[in-house]
Structure formats: C-alpha cells, structure tokens
Amino acid sequence: MSTHRVEGHILTPQGFMRGTLRYEHGRIRRIEGARRTEEQARTESTTIVVPGFIDAHVHGGGGSDTMEAGDAIDRIARLHARYGTTSLLATTMTAPLSEVEAAMRALAPACTRRATGAARVLGVHLEGPYINPGKLGAQPDFVRPASIEEIRALHALAPIRLITLAPELPGNLDIIVPLRAAGFRVQIGHTLGSYEDGVAALERGATGFTHLFNAMTGMHHREPGIVGAALAHARYAEIIPDLLHVHPGAIRAALRAIPGLFCVTDSTAATGMPDGDYRLGRHRVTKCLGGVRVADGTLAGSTLTMDQALRNLVTIGLSLEDASRRVSAHAAEYLGLSDRGRLVEGAHADLVLLDRELQLQRVLVEGEEIDLAPAEGCV
Fold first, then answer.
1. Cα–chain-centroid distance for residue 118?
2. Nearest 10 degrees: CA dihedral of 66, 189, 158, 87?
C-alpha cells in the first residue's frame, strides 16, 4: 500500500503545525511542518486537520437502535462516521436480561471487525440495568440488582468497556471493587444518590459520571448531590453539549472543575433523520424542534453529532484546541487508548478535515476515506 498524505494546519498534542501528515496501512507515519498559532490556523488555511472524534455514548443513528438485531450497529457506525466520529461505544438500554443478551450478541461482530465506511466500534457501554428506578430518564423500568457473575456473562457475549450504575442501590457500592479488578470502568449515573454516595463510589474505583447534570441529583449548597461530588472530585465525566441538555453556563462550570470533561452525543436512532417517531430501546420517541422526547416530554437522548458538539464548544468560548481535546483526546485517555484521539506518529489515521467555519471537508477512519453523502432516508 502506498503512502498517502493530507496537508493543512494539523493539530498535534504540541499545537498546530502547517505542513503534511503522511499515513499508510491505516497508521500515521510522519507529521512535518512549521509551528502555527490557532489564530493563524483559523485564518491562513482552508483545511484544518484534527483527530477523529471519539463518542463513548451512542444509542443509535440513521434510523437504527443499538438494541436491534441484524446489521443495525453497522448502519449506526456509518451514520456517525459521516459526522466525524471515528470510534464509538455502542450503548445499551435498560431492558429485560434476555433483551440485553440479545443486543450484546448482535453487537459482538461489530466489536471485532469494522464495517466498510463505518466508525470503529470499540465495545459496549452498559447503561443500566443497574440504575435507580427513580432516575430512569428515558430508560425503560427494568432495573435489576448488579451482579458480577451477570456482568461477566454479558462481557463474554460482547466486550463491555463502560458500566453505568447508581451507587446508592443495595450492593452497588460493594460491586465496584470487583468490577474494577476485572478490568471494567464504572461510571456513576441515573442516580438519586447523595454527595457522600458519589464520593464513596469514587473511593472504591468509579472513574467517571454519565452525562453530567442529567439523570442525577443536582447541586445545592447544603446538599451537594452527585453533581457536587463530580464537580469537587472527578477527573473525568461525560457531558452532552447540544445546548439543550445542559445550559452553556453549566458546561463552563464543569469545564473549570473537571480536567478531563469529554463530550458524548447520547445519540438516538433519530440522529441524522427527519422529524418523526423512532425507537429507543423499548420506547417510542419523537424527534421535533431539534430534540428527542418520550410521550411525557422527558428528553430521550439526542440528535447531536460530534462535529456539531465541537462547533458548540467553540461557540460558547472554548479554543478550537481545547474543544478538540473534549471530543477526542480526553475520551481516549479515559478509555485507555494510546493510539487514538491524537495526531502522533504510530496512531491510527483517524482524521477529520475542517474548513475555517469548522464544517467537515473529509473524514478518514483508520486511513479509509468516508463518503460524507447522506444515506438514503437521512437528512
């Protein structure tokens, strides 16, 4: 295979360079150029090269849901690749155990091989069923006690990379230590827990928070809640920056408090699709006015894409360099990925090429050029 190259203002861990990135066999081989400031990169060049986006919380896209059978996950991964996501975690919904098992079996092939034109599926984010029935959000009410044996059995079906649980439920604090020892990452979410519950979970090895501010106890100055535990102690947390789930002011507060705050979409089957009704696990949800809701009006995931997440962060005042870290590098660090989320020699050639307005020009996943044209039925 011959060596390929892209040229422009390239965002490396050391800052912007104006030059050339060469890649072959899906890996970056060399980056050459002269240093540039971000201001120069935004004004001098018609092409800005940033690391491919990493999304750790994806329920669907392109009309398909992760809880479906068949090739739904391939359609989802192709949809998100067209918006610059080069790797993702397929995220399950709370459901009867038999349905979770069926979903894991359907997801398993995509976790070992990448479909043509698709983002890499890194594994599964198990969002429930070990959550608080009083903070379901848009999750169906099939909550069950956490069990290390059950989680190991699910992991045998498809690789689990993240587990969301509510630490205040009986047994959930105690299970964090053996889960961490077994190599799982545990996030705190869908919880009515107190500040003390959150701190206790972190002390036992929980490493993050699921869609910060959403589906958790908020912060009050005399009852700091789970949000207070995150702001006071977390190194990493997810956030949905669609500017609907979380106010820009709250995003900025979290940015000041949590060094590794990273963006997720919490995207649903409605992502990339026209307004209408879609599936979210067992629920039917409606997309309209830029959001997705269940019948009672509760937000039910999003239609956010990671390229829009990047632009939203810049709109609320972040530098492009910082915004890029929030959609790539921090998630890679959190998931223990040394060869994704940054443009360095030896890393996967996961590249997003942007114009001066931060609109997508090209996307490469492991060196493969992605067709950015919408699929049939998508918008």
1. 15
2. 70
pLDDT of residue 2: 81
Crossing angle of helices 97-112 and 72-81, in 10° steps, is 60
**Site of tokens 């956490």:** 146
pLDDT for residue 336: 98
- Provide the residue ranges of all domains of the chain, joining segments of one domain with +: 4-49+345-369, 52-335
Pair 93, 67: CB distance under 8 Å:
yes
Nearest residue to 326 via CA among 217, 232, 237: 237
Q: Is 266 annotated in the active site?
A: yes
* CB 53 within 8 Å of CB 352: yes
pLDDT at 1: 56
CATH for the 4-49+345-369 domain, from 2.40.128.110, 3.30.420.240, 2.30.40.10, 1.20.140.10: 2.30.40.10
**What single DSSP character describes residue 370?**
P
Contact present, 309 and 84 (Cβ < 8 Å): no
Number of H helices and number of E strands within the chain?
11, 20
52-335 belongs to which CATH class?
alpha beta
Exactly one of 266, 277, 307, 339 is catalytic; which is it? 266
Kindly list the averaged pLDDT for each block of 10 residues, start to end, along the chain of length 379: 91 97 98 96 91 98 96 97 98 97 98 98 96 96 96 98 98 97 98 98 98 98 98 98 98 98 98 96 92 92 98 98 98 98 98 97 98 92
